[in-house]
Amino acid sequence: MPTSPLSQEPDEMARETETLILQRVASCGQKQLALAVGSSETTVSRWNDGEYEKWAKALSFLGLRVVPQTAVVVTSEYLSSVETLARIGLKAERKRPGPLGWD
């Protein structure tokens, strides 16, 4: 059973962050990343020797997350509220006589 992002250990969050960074670097390429940050491709290549891991751990320690730009991030309180409203709505819908409203 997957754990909630809020219950993850810092090391696990750091590993996920590093994995996401490595996936993105692989998808755009070290050369493009080097151009974007004003470094040489050799410098960016050396970052694979623990630099990404170090920054992922630092971000995790600071309580920060790396997410794709397309991600929608909400607080745990907001998510809990939406879950509660959904549960109440489904309970009410099940009590309705006749077919479900979305059938």
From TrEMBL:
One of its GO terms (molecular function) is DNA binding. Signal peptide: none annotated. Gene3D superfamilies: lambda repressor-like DNA-binding domains. One of its GO terms (biological process) is regulation of DNA-templated transcription. It comes from the Bacteria. This is Transcriptional regulator. It comes from Pseudomonas extremaustralis.
